[in-house]
Design a protein that fits this description.
single chain, about 375 residues, 2 domains, 7-stranded parallel sheet, about 15% strand, alpha/beta, 6-stranded parallel sheet, Rossmann fold
Length: about 375
């Protein structure tokens, strides 16, 4: 194949991971591809020539976006100008709908070939966005099983590539080795803490996590807590926890239970078959608007994809230290352990496909 340019845009950590994997698969098809765009360290390591780093875009919440609107608008305009200057053969948008849907509309008017990978959750709220996807993107690629049928019912063609995290279920880890490495007593129960990967999530969540740890330490003498830190945030704490910022799947894979901030991490935890409770806190105004517009019963990806309650969710006012500690105590009793693992296995089967997800997406982009 000839040398070609691809401009690729992700706006947060999970998109950076998916973007890097997709770039790797695209290079199998065309090793001469040059990548430009908005991404993070993983995409940069895979060869992306950064026009903007995701750390400058990693914002969540309607009113938080308004607060930083002028900065985001500046990045948006500079991204459009970069694309006009580079004239890439393809533009790939990854998730991050508030930014990328506006970009799709702008770039479509300039006759660029646009693919959207990891679609906005229009079935949950803002269904009108589905028409924007249909009108302005040439190809749509989904990683959630029921989306293909949902879009099909509305006359929109979507390629389901499978879910990237389903392969995690094949990983196995040795608990004894992990405990030795981190000086954890062999008889201790291991609780993993995942308060989020964005600084705003840490600001809202971590104090609640700390108080939860204090309650559980008071109630039990044989618990060890593992804090998983995001790549772009450092958490300061006086609580007795072990911090890990690499090989994090190993910690989840050997843990007895986890407290997980809602997002991609909930699926990772389910794929690694660790019992969990899910929590999340938005700003009050954003939560009110979300409740008004939302069309779904669940918040976490695990429950959404399963279309039933597999894991307990403690959201907004329910995200209290006592509620979280009670949720963990329930899991530590192991009363529903087998039922949870059975539901996880059903979820894994639902997400699996025969092909590598990123290879499937790359082939479809070039089809």
């Amino acid at each position: 194949m000839n040398r070609e340019k691809i401009f690729i845009i992700s706006g947060e950590d999970s998109g950076d991971l998916h973007g890097a994997k997709l770039m790797e698969s695209i290079k199998k098809i065309n090793p001469h591809t040059e990548f430009f765009g908005v991404g993070g360290n993983r995409m940069q390591s895979e060869g992306l020539q950064l026009t903007e780093h995701i750390k400058n875009l990693n914002i969540i919440g309607i009113f938080e976006v308004i607060k930083h609107y002028s900065r985001i608008k500046k990045i948006f305009n500079s991204t459009v100008e970069e694309i006009k200057k580079l004239r890439p053969n393809k533009v790939i948008l990854i998730d991050y709908p508030g930014f990328n849907l506006r970009l799709a509309k702008k770039l479509h008017a300039l006759n660029f070939d646009i693919t959207y990978f990891i679609l906005p959750q229009v079935w949950a709220w803002k269904e009108s966005r589905s028409k924007i996807l249909e009108q302005y993107c040439r190809k749509l690629i989904s990683i959630i099983p029921f989306e293909k049928n949902w879009f099909s019912q509305r006359g929109i063609d979507v390629h389901y590539a499978g879910h990237p995290l389903s392969d995690l279920s094949n990983l196995t880890f040795d608990r004894y080795t992990f405990c030795q490495k981190h000086s954890i007593p062999e008889k201790n129960k291991i609780i993993v803490l995942m308060p989020g990967s964005r600084s705003i999530e840490i600001k809202r969540h971590w104090k609640i996590f700390e108080k939860t740890v204090e309650i559980l330490q008071h109630e039990h003498k044989n618990l060890s807590f593992i804090l998983l830190e995001g790549e772009n945030v450092e958490i300061k704490t006086n609580t007795d926890v072990i911090k890990i910022n690499e090989n994090q799947y190993e910690a989840i894979g050997v843990a007895d239970a986890a407290i997980v901030c809602s997002g991609t991490a909930t699926l990772e935890t389910a794929m690694l078959k660790c019992p969990m409770i899910v929590c999340y806190k938005l700003s009050t105004l954003t939560w009110i608007v979300a409740q008004m517009l939302s069309k779904v019963e669940h918040f976490s990806l695990v429950n959404l994809i399963a279309e039933e309650t597999i894991v307990d969710e403690f959201l907004q006012k329910k995200m209290l230290p006592k509620n979280l500690s009670n949720g963990i105590n329930k899991l530590l009793k192991n009363e529903n352990h087998d039922a949870i693992i059975k539901k996880y296995n059903q979820l894994i089967e639902k997400l699996k496909t025969n092909d590598n997800v990123y290879d499937s997406a790359a082939k479809y982009i070039y089809d």
